[in-house]
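pasting for ref
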Amino acid sequence: MIMKRLLVPAALLLAIGAQAQPASPGLAMPDVALEYAEGESTSAHALAGARGTVLIFWSNECNWTAQYERRVRDVWGSAGGVPIVLVNANDARAFPGEAADSDMGLPYVRDNTGALAAALGAARTPEVFAFDADRNLVYTGAIDDAAADPEAVTHTWLQDVVGQLSGGQPVTVPSTRPFGCRIKLP
């Protein structure tokens, strides 16, 4: 009985640790089934752009994503042919508001099974995964370094990555540490 009690927490810690490890740069974009908020089916590959693709794990109910809305819209407006797509992987049964469409104007899809989040090791919202023209992961991490105060930003990682991808340049910072709300997978 004591052994069973010890094994269950150990298994939970391993599962949590496995989810928290983001994918390494160079990983090929997984072609996972996704769904627009309106119910239309799509896939990660169908969303890919010719110059690159940025997937941002997002949550309608996370205060950190709310603080980033304007900055993400601004980067999207100057993305130079690099699609920026918001991805929601939270359990819609537990968070019914998560199934609702965002009013940001960007493409917004649901990862209904959590397969994309699991394949990329996404654990937070917001969390950025950027892929180059060959659909290889070139950046994973935060949008910038000052979620609570746009005036205090000193590193504009998302903006830099999008600019580098749209200009056909290599991404100079391959990863940063994301912060935000935990994804609650289905």
